[in-house]
Amino acid sequence: QAESLLKESRGDSGMEELARLEIQDLNERQATLIERVTLALLPSDPRDERSVMLEIRAGAGGDEACLWAGDLARMYERYGSRQGWNVQPVSANAADLGGYRELILSVKGDAVFSQLKFEAGVHRVQRVPATESQGRVHTSTATVAVMPEADPVEVQIDPTELEISTAR
C-alpha cells in the first residue's frame, strides 16, 4: 500500500516523504522478522539443556599462560554466578606464581551447554605480564574444553559371559 501511495503522490512532496519513510520502516521490520523466523526454524541441539564440565589448561607462554588460565577461570566463575549457575572446582593444578596449569570446573544449571558450547577452543591474550621486568608484550594461550554431562547409562554384566584368566 505504501508503494502504491508513493506512485500516486507524484508532486506532493509531503506525502512522498511519508510513503518513503513508511517503506523504509517496513523493510527494516521485515528483515528483523525474517531473521527471527530463520533462527526459530533452526533445529536445537538436544544437549543444550545439560550442565557441563569446563576444562581450562594453560598453553604456550609459561607462567604467564598459567596466569591467563586463572583469569579465564575467574571470568567463567563470575559469569556462571551471574547466570545463577552452580560453579564448583572438580580438579585443580595450581601454578607456582598464581593461576592454574589445569582446572576442571563443574557448571550446573539451566541450559548451561547452550550458553558455553562456543567457548571451546584456544583463547589468546597479548599483554605486558606481571612476570615481565622490561615491559615487553607477551602472547599467552589457554585451551578451554566444554563437555556436556553424559547421559546416565546402566550396564548389566552377565556373570556367565565373563572370562577370567590369570598369568604370572
Which features does this protein show?
5-stranded antiparallel β-sheet, flat, 168 residues, 5 strands, alpha+beta
Commentary on this structure:
- The protein is of the alpha+beta class and 168 residues long.
- The protein has four helices and five strands, in the order ααβαββαββ.
- A hairpin with a 5-residue loop joins strand 2 and strand 3.
- The longest helix is centred in the N-terminal third of the chain and has 29 residues.
- The radius of gyration is 28 Å and the shape is flat.
Helix content: 25-40%
Indicate the proportion of strand residues.
25-35%
Biggest sheet architecture: 5 strands, antiparallel
Give the uncertain stretches in residue-range form. none
**Largest sheet, spatial ordering of strands:** 2-3-1-5-4
Give the topology:
Layout: H1 2-8, H2 13-41, E1 52-58, H3 63-83, E2 86-94, E3 100-108, H4 112-116, E4 121-127, E5 138-148
Antiparallel strand pairs: 1-3, 1-5, 2-3, 4-5
Helix pairs in contact: 1-2
Short description:
With 168 residues, the protein is α+β, with helices and mostly antiparallel strands. Helix content is 37%, strand content 26%.
